[in-house]
Amino acid sequence: MVSEGYDQAGSSAYAVPAREGHLVFVTSEDQIREVENSPIDHLSFHQAMEDRLKVKYIFAGFEMGPIDPHDAVPIRVLKTLLRANIPNLRPRIQMAIEKAFDACMNDGKVASNAEKPDFFQATRKYHRQALFAMLTSHYFPHWTHSLLALGGAMKKIESYLTAEVTQRLIEIQAGNREIPSDGITWVIEASTTKEQRAVKRIVQQVILVFFASAHQLPVLLMFSIFRLCEHPKYTQPLITEVETMLNLPETDHYKSLPLLESFLRETARHDPLDSLSVQRKVLKDFTFKDGTHVPAGNVICVPQQAVMRDPRYYDQPDEFLPFRFAAKESNDAVQKFTDLTPHFYLWGATAKPW
Fold first, then answer.
1. Which among 25, 216, 230, 319 has most CB atoms closer than 10 A?
2. Mean predicted lDDT score pLDDT of the chain
3. Residue 181 · residue 49 · CB < 8 Å
4. Do the beta carbons of residue 32 and residue 11 sit within 8 Å?
5. pTM of the full predicted structure?
């Protein structure tokens, strides 16, 4: 229905009935820029996510709002602290991937984390339950949403994290420098106000990061592996590129992998996890400069899957062309996987990437 509406509307906005109100899709760069630059008390990303994900019930009571109105905590965790620690994390991640592949190739089973098997089993169960709850909650009355507490899995995760966060806060207060450098510590470090540093709030924020980490990017990597299996002829060029890079001085590692960048970007374009992007709940009646009027209570968004299959923007849009985004005559990537550009809305809009 979304793609059909896109084809019929051309560059005009169009609406699709939703369970509550309408999804109003915009596709022109001018309208998308208006959405990006609109005040948050008119068009709200937070409220769109609250409605769609049932955040309060899925993430142990977490509520968006005045405690961290501009998402400073997750932004600092992901854009600053995670990036700074990638060189230290890379060998551990590589080892975990190698072990998982070896296990899958040998007997098809991947061993759970040996240190905390119960906790990691609970996290896997929680992710499945959370996705199911999000997809089904819209079909039931609001008063039933409190039943989405996800039972034992979330309680086990919350209990473990509460004890761990409490202990780390004590150690930080005592000046202990031997605290693990991981997602829990980064959330604590990024939380600067009294409200943000409450144990319950930190636990909720960590659970939210846990969920996000098992959502879009892992599924993208799964699709990438599937595409490599489907198109094995592209495996060797990617291996050669990585081997060439690893022979460079360490300071130049991972800075230029145009074929891999293109492969990941094309996988995301061809198989996006979500058909929607740049989602905003309309809190007050909103009128675009071209006269398009959207009443309060609806959601404005971009039909990213339809846009990324549009022949006006991509040649042979239905074909998987893994090196589509790599330069034809050099090894410099035309566009990196993480670049924010028009007509590629995996990361959101260009001005506000969410």
1. 25
2. 85
3. no
4. no
5. 0.85
